[in-house]
Amino acid sequence: MSIWWSLHLRREAASVPLARRLLLGTMETAGVDPDVSYDLSVALTEACANAVEHGGGPARRGGPASEAYRVTAYLDGETCRIEVADSGPGFQRGGAPAPPAADDAENGRGLRLIEELADHVHVGRTGRGGALVSFDKLLKWRPDAPLALT
């Protein structure tokens, strides 16, 4: 069995905890270990915060600038994959690890934190030119997991 969901969210700060709560609820219901759920929820929070802050694209063909982003989560077998896509300018990293942020920096730590919490991270562009952050983590299950997806 697998579980997946996708949200189309407005680029507003209030959308971030909504995505996080949905992920945590899904994982709790499925029986994912709370520590793994927490790590993924923090990584998702960082990715969504980046989309809210940086994910707006310019107006296209006379239309308004993009005010939305997409979050998709897949729990399949022993892995959870999360993707956050927006229509912003993308990243300038070129696939290199995120540079370390200064200890007192207020910005610039989100991608590094995602890389620390997930097993595999991909940062790239969507087919429409926006940014895409996708990350995977191996799942651990509670002993009483009702929906262990093995």
Mean pLDDT: 84
Helical residue percent?
A: 25-40%
The dominant shape is globular
Q: How many β strands by DSSP? A: 5
How many alpha or pi helices? 3
Widest sheet, order of strands = 1-2-3-5-4
Class from secondary-structure proportions? alpha+beta
Distance between the termini: 8 Å
Strand content: 25-35%
| Assembly category | single chain
What is the CA-atom radius of gyration, in angstroms? Answer: 16 Å
How can the largest sheet be summarized? Answer: 5 strands, antiparallel
Helix and strand run: EHHEEHEE
| Low-pLDDT runs | 61-65
Layout of SSEs?
Layout: E1 2-10, H1 15-30, H2 34-54, E2 68-76, E3 79-85, H3 110-117, E4 120-125, E5 131-138
Helix pairs in contact: 1-2, 2-3
What does this structure look like?
This protein has a 5-stranded antiparallel β-sheet, with helices on one face. The termini are close together. Helix 2 runs antiparallel to helix 3. With 150 residues, the chain is α+β, with helices and mostly antiparallel strands. It has 3 helices and 5 strands; from the N terminus they run E-H-H-E-E-H-E-E. The protein is globular and about 45 Å long. Helix content is 30%, strand content 26%. Strand 2 (68-76) and strand 3 form a beta hairpin.
